[in-house]
Amino acid sequence: MKRLSAIIALCLCLLPLVPSGSAARTPIRVAFISPSPQGEQPFWDEFAAFMQEAARDLGMELEVVYARHRFEVEENADQIAHQKAKPDYLVYMYQATSTRNMLPMLEQMGIKSVIVNTDTIPLERPLVGGPREIYPHWIGHIYPDDLLAGRMLADRLIHQGIENGLTDNDRLLHMVGIGGSRDATSGTYRMNGLMQALENNPRAVLDRFVWAEWQRDKARTKTLALLDYHPDARVYWAVHGDTALGILDAVEELGIKAGKSFLTGGIGWSADCLQAVREGRMEAAIGGHFMEGAWALVMILDYHHGHDFAAPDPTLQSEMRLIDNSNLDTYAPLLDPDNWKKIDFRLFSKTYNSRITEYDFSPDAVVRQLSGN
Protein backbone atom coordinates (compact mmCIF):
# COMPACT_ATOMS: atom_id res chain seq x y z
CA MET A 1 0.00 0.00 0.00
CA LYS A 2 2.82 2.43 0.86
CA ARG A 3 4.45 1.69 -2.49
CA LEU A 4 1.16 2.36 -4.34
CA SER A 5 0.73 5.68 -2.50
CA ALA A 6 4.25 6.72 -3.46
CA ILE A 7 3.61 5.89 -7.12
CA ILE A 8 0.36 7.92 -7.10
CA ALA A 9 2.13 10.89 -5.49
CA LEU A 10 4.90 10.75 -8.09
CA CYS A 11 2.36 10.67 -10.93
CA LEU A 12 0.55 13.69 -9.50
CA CYS A 13 3.82 15.65 -9.40
CA LEU A 14 4.44 14.84 -13.06
CA LEU A 15 1.04 16.11 -14.21
CA PRO A 16 1.11 19.47 -16.04
CA LEU A 17 -0.08 22.54 -14.20
CA VAL A 18 -3.82 22.93 -14.67
CA PRO A 19 -5.83 26.09 -14.09
CA SER A 20 -8.40 26.35 -11.36
CA GLY A 21 -11.72 27.63 -12.66
CA SER A 22 -11.96 28.81 -16.27
CA ALA A 23 -8.44 30.06 -17.04
CA ALA A 24 -8.22 27.90 -20.17
CA ARG A 25 -11.22 29.55 -21.88
CA THR A 26 -11.27 32.77 -23.93
CA PRO A 27 -7.81 34.40 -23.76
CA ILE A 28 -7.54 37.59 -21.74
CA ARG A 29 -6.70 40.55 -24.00
CA VAL A 30 -4.13 43.02 -22.64
CA ALA A 31 -2.60 46.12 -24.20
CA PHE A 32 0.72 47.52 -22.99
CA ILE A 33 1.73 51.08 -23.84
CA SER A 34 5.52 51.34 -23.94
CA PRO A 35 6.73 54.90 -23.21
CA SER A 36 9.58 54.50 -25.71
CA PRO A 37 9.68 53.69 -29.44
CA GLN A 38 10.90 50.21 -30.27
CA GLY A 39 14.69 50.06 -30.53
CA GLU A 40 15.30 53.36 -28.76
CA GLN A 41 15.77 52.27 -25.13
CA PRO A 42 17.04 48.73 -24.37
CA PHE A 43 15.21 48.65 -21.03
CA TRP A 44 11.77 49.05 -22.59
CA ASP A 45 12.59 46.62 -25.40
CA GLU A 46 13.52 44.00 -22.80
CA PHE A 47 10.47 44.90 -20.70
CA ALA A 48 8.10 44.32 -23.65
CA ALA A 49 9.86 41.20 -24.94
CA PHE A 50 9.85 39.52 -21.50
CA MET A 51 6.20 40.46 -21.13
CA GLN A 52 5.37 38.90 -24.51
CA GLU A 53 7.05 35.64 -23.49
CA ALA A 54 4.96 35.59 -20.31
CA ALA A 55 1.76 36.28 -22.26
CA ARG A 56 2.41 33.31 -24.56
CA ASP A 57 3.08 31.03 -21.61
CA LEU A 58 0.00 32.22 -19.71
CA GLY A 59 -2.29 31.94 -22.75
CA MET A 60 -3.00 35.68 -22.88
CA GLU A 61 -3.20 37.97 -25.91
CA LEU A 62 -0.82 40.93 -25.61
CA GLU A 63 -0.66 43.97 -27.87
CA VAL A 64 2.33 46.31 -27.44
CA VAL A 65 1.76 49.92 -28.48
CA TYR A 66 4.76 52.27 -28.64
CA ALA A 67 4.82 55.98 -27.78
CA ARG A 68 7.45 58.66 -28.31
CA HIS A 69 6.54 60.74 -25.25
CA ARG A 70 4.05 60.89 -22.38
CA PHE A 71 1.48 62.87 -24.36
CA GLU A 72 1.45 60.18 -27.03
CA VAL A 73 0.93 57.61 -24.26
CA GLU A 74 -2.22 59.50 -23.35
CA GLU A 75 -3.31 59.66 -27.00
CA ASN A 76 -2.72 55.94 -27.43
CA ALA A 77 -4.74 55.16 -24.30
CA ASP A 78 -7.62 57.25 -25.63
CA GLN A 79 -7.53 55.45 -28.99
CA ILE A 80 -7.40 52.03 -27.30
CA ALA A 81 -10.31 52.91 -25.02
CA HIS A 82 -12.50 54.05 -27.92
CA GLN A 83 -11.73 51.28 -30.40
CA LYS A 84 -14.42 48.74 -31.19
CA ALA A 85 -12.52 45.72 -29.87
CA LYS A 86 -11.26 47.01 -26.54
CA PRO A 87 -8.72 45.04 -24.49
CA ASP A 88 -9.79 43.62 -21.18
CA TYR A 89 -6.88 45.31 -19.40
CA LEU A 90 -4.34 48.06 -20.02
CA VAL A 91 -0.78 48.20 -18.62
CA TYR A 92 1.27 51.41 -18.61
CA MET A 93 3.67 53.44 -16.48
CA TYR A 94 2.74 56.46 -14.38
CA GLN A 95 3.72 59.77 -15.99
CA ALA A 96 3.04 63.30 -14.80
CA THR A 97 -0.25 64.88 -15.95
CA SER A 98 -0.87 62.23 -18.63
CA THR A 99 -1.79 59.44 -16.24
CA ARG A 100 -3.90 61.82 -14.16
CA ASN A 101 -5.92 62.47 -17.34
CA MET A 102 -6.02 58.81 -18.39
CA LEU A 103 -7.43 57.36 -15.17
CA PRO A 104 -10.90 59.02 -15.31
CA MET A 105 -11.17 58.27 -19.04
CA LEU A 106 -10.34 54.58 -18.53
CA GLU A 107 -12.78 54.47 -15.62
CA GLN A 108 -15.54 55.89 -17.78
CA MET A 109 -14.80 53.42 -20.59
CA GLY A 110 -14.75 50.48 -18.17
CA ILE A 111 -11.17 49.39 -18.87
CA LYS A 112 -9.26 47.91 -15.95
CA SER A 113 -5.59 48.81 -15.69
CA VAL A 114 -2.34 48.04 -13.88
CA ILE A 115 0.38 50.69 -13.57
CA VAL A 116 4.00 49.54 -13.66
CA ASN A 117 7.56 50.80 -13.17
CA THR A 118 6.98 54.16 -11.43
CA ASP A 119 5.22 55.48 -8.35
CA THR A 120 2.55 58.16 -8.55
CA ILE A 121 3.71 61.78 -8.67
CA PRO A 122 3.50 63.08 -5.06
CA LEU A 123 1.75 66.31 -6.10
CA GLU A 124 -0.86 64.31 -8.01
CA ARG A 125 -1.47 61.70 -5.32
CA PRO A 126 -4.40 63.56 -3.69
CA LEU A 127 -6.09 63.63 -7.12
CA VAL A 128 -5.54 60.00 -8.13
CA GLY A 129 -5.22 58.16 -4.82
CA GLY A 130 -4.02 54.58 -4.96
CA PRO A 131 -5.36 51.52 -6.76
CA ARG A 132 -9.14 51.07 -6.24
CA GLU A 133 -9.45 54.18 -4.08
CA ILE A 134 -10.70 56.95 -6.39
CA TYR A 135 -10.69 54.87 -9.59
CA PRO A 136 -11.88 51.27 -8.95
CA HIS A 137 -10.85 50.16 -12.45
CA TRP A 138 -7.23 50.95 -11.60
CA ILE A 139 -6.81 47.55 -9.99
CA GLY A 140 -3.10 47.31 -9.25
CA HIS A 141 0.30 48.98 -9.15
CA ILE A 142 3.77 47.41 -9.23
CA TYR A 143 7.03 49.35 -9.16
CA PRO A 144 10.56 48.93 -7.75
CA ASP A 145 12.11 50.45 -4.66
CA ASP A 146 14.06 53.10 -6.56
CA LEU A 147 15.17 54.85 -3.38
CA LEU A 148 16.90 51.67 -2.22
CA ALA A 149 18.40 51.09 -5.67
CA GLY A 150 19.92 54.57 -5.77
CA ARG A 151 21.35 54.14 -2.28
CA MET A 152 22.71 50.64 -2.96
CA LEU A 153 24.54 51.85 -6.05
CA ALA A 154 25.97 54.88 -4.26
CA ASP A 155 27.07 52.83 -1.25
CA ARG A 156 28.88 50.42 -3.54
CA LEU A 157 30.63 53.16 -5.52
CA ILE A 158 31.65 55.02 -2.36
CA HIS A 159 33.00 51.89 -0.69
CA GLN A 160 34.94 50.83 -3.76
CA GLY A 161 36.17 54.36 -4.49
CA ILE A 162 37.68 54.64 -1.02
CA GLU A 163 39.04 51.09 -1.29
CA ASN A 164 40.72 52.00 -4.60
CA GLY A 165 42.32 55.10 -3.10
CA LEU A 166 40.38 57.58 -5.24
CA THR A 167 40.10 60.19 -2.48
CA ASP A 168 41.64 63.60 -3.22
CA ASN A 169 44.22 65.58 -1.22
CA ASP A 170 41.42 66.70 1.10
CA ARG A 171 40.87 63.00 1.92
CA LEU A 172 37.37 63.15 0.45
CA LEU A 173 35.94 61.02 -2.33
CA HIS A 174 34.62 63.46 -4.93
CA MET A 175 31.59 62.26 -6.89
CA VAL A 176 29.33 63.36 -9.73
CA GLY A 177 25.72 62.27 -10.15
CA ILE A 178 23.97 62.07 -13.52
CA GLY A 179 20.21 61.74 -13.25
CA GLY A 180 17.23 61.11 -15.50
CA SER A 181 14.49 63.72 -15.56
CA ARG A 182 12.77 65.88 -12.97
CA ASP A 183 9.26 64.68 -13.84
CA ALA A 184 9.88 60.94 -13.26
CA THR A 185 9.52 59.61 -9.73
CA SER A 186 12.00 56.82 -10.47
CA GLY A 187 14.72 59.36 -11.24
CA THR A 188 13.85 61.47 -8.20
CA TYR A 189 13.78 58.50 -5.82
CA ARG A 190 17.09 57.18 -7.12
CA MET A 191 18.65 60.62 -6.68
CA ASN A 192 17.30 60.72 -3.11
CA GLY A 193 18.93 57.34 -2.52
CA LEU A 194 22.24 58.82 -3.64
CA MET A 195 21.76 61.72 -1.21
CA GLN A 196 21.00 59.32 1.66
CA ALA A 197 24.19 57.39 0.95
CA LEU A 198 26.20 60.62 0.99
CA GLU A 199 24.67 61.63 4.32
CA ASN A 200 25.74 58.28 5.76
CA ASN A 201 29.26 58.47 4.31
CA PRO A 202 31.06 61.64 5.49
CA ARG A 203 34.16 60.74 3.47
CA ALA A 204 32.25 61.25 0.19
CA VAL A 205 31.12 64.55 -1.33
CA LEU A 206 28.98 65.32 -4.38
CA ASP A 207 30.61 67.91 -6.62
CA ARG A 208 27.74 68.18 -9.10
CA PHE A 209 24.42 66.60 -10.04
CA VAL A 210 23.01 67.04 -13.55
CA TRP A 211 20.09 65.66 -15.56
CA ALA A 212 20.62 63.73 -18.80
CA GLU A 213 17.00 62.76 -19.67
CA TRP A 214 17.81 59.01 -19.61
CA GLN A 215 19.78 59.37 -22.86
CA ARG A 216 23.17 57.76 -23.45
CA ASP A 217 24.42 60.45 -25.83
CA LYS A 218 23.34 63.28 -23.55
CA ALA A 219 25.13 61.57 -20.63
CA ARG A 220 28.27 61.34 -22.78
CA THR A 221 28.13 65.05 -23.69
CA LYS A 222 27.57 66.16 -20.12
CA THR A 223 30.33 63.88 -18.82
CA LEU A 224 32.86 65.35 -21.26
CA ALA A 225 32.14 68.79 -19.77
CA LEU A 226 32.02 67.58 -16.17
CA LEU A 227 35.40 65.85 -16.41
CA ASP A 228 36.86 69.25 -17.27
CA TYR A 229 34.95 71.17 -14.58
CA HIS A 230 35.53 68.62 -11.81
CA PRO A 231 38.86 66.89 -12.47
CA ASP A 232 39.03 65.59 -8.89
CA ALA A 233 35.82 63.55 -9.26
CA ARG A 234 36.65 60.02 -10.25
CA VAL A 235 33.37 58.36 -9.23
CA TYR A 236 30.22 58.89 -11.31
CA TRP A 237 26.83 57.67 -10.09
CA ALA A 238 24.35 57.03 -12.95
CA VAL A 239 20.58 56.90 -12.66
CA HIS A 240 20.26 54.43 -15.52
CA GLY A 241 22.19 51.78 -17.41
CA ASP A 242 22.29 53.79 -20.63
CA THR A 243 23.43 56.81 -18.63
CA ALA A 244 26.34 54.79 -17.22
CA LEU A 245 27.26 53.64 -20.72
CA GLY A 246 27.26 57.28 -21.87
CA ILE A 247 29.67 58.09 -19.05
CA LEU A 248 31.93 55.26 -20.21
CA ASP A 249 31.75 56.54 -23.79
CA ALA A 250 33.06 59.92 -22.61
CA VAL A 251 35.89 58.74 -20.37
CA GLU A 252 37.13 56.21 -22.91
CA GLU A 253 36.99 58.86 -25.63
CA LEU A 254 39.43 60.85 -23.50
CA GLY A 255 41.67 57.83 -22.97
CA ILE A 256 40.72 57.34 -19.30
CA LYS A 257 40.66 53.67 -18.33
CA ALA A 258 37.47 52.89 -16.43
CA GLY A 259 37.91 50.43 -13.60
CA LYS A 260 40.42 50.95 -10.82
CA SER A 261 41.05 54.69 -11.33
CA PHE A 262 37.56 55.69 -12.50
CA LEU A 263 34.33 54.13 -11.25
CA THR A 264 30.78 54.23 -12.50
CA GLY A 265 27.66 52.11 -12.29
CA GLY A 266 24.01 52.38 -13.22
CA ILE A 267 20.53 51.10 -12.57
CA GLY A 268 19.46 48.77 -15.36
CA TRP A 269 20.45 45.35 -16.69
CA SER A 270 21.02 45.66 -20.40
CA ALA A 271 23.32 43.23 -22.21
CA ASP A 272 25.79 46.08 -22.78
CA CYS A 273 25.81 46.95 -19.07
CA LEU A 274 26.45 43.36 -18.05
CA GLN A 275 29.25 43.11 -20.59
CA ALA A 276 30.80 46.29 -19.14
CA VAL A 277 30.60 44.76 -15.66
CA ARG A 278 32.20 41.55 -16.93
CA GLU A 279 35.07 43.54 -18.48
CA GLY A 280 35.58 45.54 -15.28
CA ARG A 281 34.68 48.84 -16.97
CA MET A 282 31.53 49.23 -14.88
CA GLU A 283 31.62 48.59 -11.14
CA ALA A 284 28.03 47.41 -10.73
CA ALA A 285 24.60 47.35 -12.33
CA ILE A 286 21.35 47.19 -10.38
CA GLY A 287 18.27 45.74 -12.03
CA GLY A 288 15.65 43.06 -12.42
CA HIS A 289 12.68 45.41 -12.75
CA PHE A 290 12.47 44.79 -16.52
CA MET A 291 10.39 41.72 -15.51
CA GLU A 292 7.56 43.80 -14.02
CA GLY A 293 5.38 43.61 -17.12
CA ALA A 294 5.32 39.82 -16.84
CA TRP A 295 4.37 40.03 -13.17
CA ALA A 296 1.59 42.49 -14.05
CA LEU A 297 0.21 39.84 -16.43
CA VAL A 298 0.32 37.22 -13.68
CA MET A 299 -1.57 39.60 -11.38
CA ILE A 300 -4.15 40.31 -14.10
CA LEU A 301 -4.62 36.60 -14.83
CA ASP A 302 -5.19 35.83 -11.17
CA TYR A 303 -7.54 38.78 -10.67
CA HIS A 304 -9.53 37.79 -13.77
CA HIS A 305 -10.03 34.28 -12.44
CA GLY A 306 -11.00 35.16 -8.90
CA HIS A 307 -7.61 35.11 -7.17
CA ASP A 308 -7.50 38.79 -6.27
CA PHE A 309 -4.07 40.13 -5.32
CA ALA A 310 -5.54 43.06 -3.37
CA ALA A 311 -4.86 41.51 0.03
CA PRO A 312 -2.90 42.76 1.81
CA ASP A 313 -2.34 45.59 -0.69
CA PRO A 314 -3.04 46.09 -4.43
CA THR A 315 0.33 47.89 -4.64
CA LEU A 316 3.39 45.63 -4.90
CA GLN A 317 7.07 46.51 -5.04
CA SER A 318 9.28 44.52 -7.37
CA GLU A 319 12.77 43.57 -6.24
CA MET A 320 16.10 44.57 -7.75
CA ARG A 321 19.54 43.09 -7.28
CA LEU A 322 23.09 44.44 -7.58
CA ILE A 323 25.25 42.65 -10.13
CA ASP A 324 29.03 42.77 -10.00
CA ASN A 325 31.77 40.38 -11.05
CA SER A 326 31.15 38.16 -8.04
CA ASN A 327 27.56 37.23 -8.97
CA LEU A 328 27.37 38.10 -12.66
CA ASP A 329 27.17 34.50 -13.81
CA THR A 330 24.26 33.88 -11.43
CA TYR A 331 22.02 36.61 -12.83
CA ALA A 332 23.27 36.91 -16.43
CA PRO A 333 21.01 34.05 -17.66
CA LEU A 334 18.02 36.29 -16.93
CA LEU A 335 19.13 38.60 -19.76
CA ASP A 336 19.30 35.82 -22.37
CA PRO A 337 16.02 35.75 -24.36
CA ASP A 338 16.64 32.10 -25.21
CA ASN A 339 16.30 31.31 -21.52
CA TRP A 340 12.94 33.05 -21.23
CA LYS A 341 11.32 30.18 -23.11
CA LYS A 342 12.43 27.88 -20.30
CA ILE A 343 10.54 29.89 -17.65
CA ASP A 344 7.18 28.45 -16.65
CA PHE A 345 5.34 31.65 -15.76
CA ARG A 346 2.36 29.60 -14.57
CA LEU A 347 4.37 28.60 -11.52
CA PHE A 348 4.13 32.23 -10.35
CA SER A 349 0.33 32.34 -10.75
CA LYS A 350 -2.21 31.46 -8.08
CA THR A 351 -4.62 30.46 -10.83
CA TYR A 352 -2.33 27.69 -12.04
CA ASN A 353 -0.37 26.98 -8.87
CA SER A 354 -2.64 26.50 -5.88
CA ARG A 355 0.36 26.15 -3.54
CA ILE A 356 1.13 29.88 -3.77
CA THR A 357 0.08 31.89 -0.75
CA GLU A 358 2.33 34.89 -1.40
CA TYR A 359 3.86 36.10 -4.66
CA ASP A 360 7.61 35.78 -5.14
CA PHE A 361 8.49 37.90 -8.17
CA SER A 362 12.15 38.31 -7.21
CA PRO A 363 15.00 37.79 -9.70
CA ASP A 364 16.15 34.99 -7.40
CA ALA A 365 12.90 33.08 -7.92
CA VAL A 366 13.43 33.12 -11.70
CA VAL A 367 17.08 32.13 -11.32
CA ARG A 368 16.03 29.18 -9.15
CA GLN A 369 13.60 28.00 -11.80
CA LEU A 370 16.18 28.31 -14.58
CA SER A 371 18.70 26.35 -12.53
CA GLY A 372 16.16 23.68 -11.63
CA ASN A 373 16.18 24.39 -7.90
From TrEMBL:
<dbReference type="InterPro" id="IPR028082">
    <property type="entry name" value="Peripla_BP_I"/>
</dbReference>
<protein>
    <recommendedName>
        <fullName>Periplasmic binding protein domain-containing protein</fullName>
    </recommendedName>
</protein>
<feature type="domain" description="Periplasmic binding protein">
    <location>
        <begin position="34"/>
        <end position="302"/>
    </location>
</feature>
<dbReference type="Pfam" id="PF13407">
    <property type="entry name" value="Peripla_BP_4"/>
</dbReference>
<feature type="signal peptide">
    <location>
        <begin position="1"/>
        <end position="23"/>
    </location>
</feature>
<dbReference type="InterPro" id="IPR025997">
    <property type="entry name" value="SBP_2_dom"/>
</dbReference>
<keyword id="KW-0732">Signal</keyword>
<comment type="similarity">
    <text>Belongs to the bacterial solute-binding protein 2 family.</text>
</comment>
